[in-house]
Known about the structure:
Blueprint: H1 2-13, E1 17-20, E2 28-29, E3 31-39, E4 45-54, H2 75-87, E5 105-112, E6 128-133
Parallel strand pairs: 2-5
Antiparallel strand pairs: 1-6, 3-4, 5-6
Amino acid sequence: MDSVRREVEGLIDKQTFVITDLPKGARSIPTRIVFKLKVDGEGNVIKYKSRVVVKGYYQRIGVDFDDSFAPVAHATAIRAALAIETAKNWDITQIDVTQAFLNSEMDKDVYVDPPDGLPEEWAPKGKVWQLLKYLYGQKDAP
Length: 142
């Protein structure tokens, strides 16, 4: 599927992981691919999207991660920013950054099993991905 190829190639381009053997005593966390349809206002399919997601519910606090972090913009802060922008007659622009989440580098060794169904070149049998940057679904992702 083209969307899966784009997702994994994006991970490779951003140097999100390296393919390696699982070190003795280490454990790997399973992953999966989440699919989504992007549709227009009339319900017509615009784009097929895929994302590799870590099954974070397999992570154990104190073992796989120490802290969790969930940045959230409060509605009042967004309304205040929009009010200031409107009052000052500033232009408001929305952008979509592909795989923006993947820019945070990791400070510990985390190993994940590649999702099922990937070609051998991306998921060699018996190998794992050592993450160099965070993936969606990790409990300790910024």
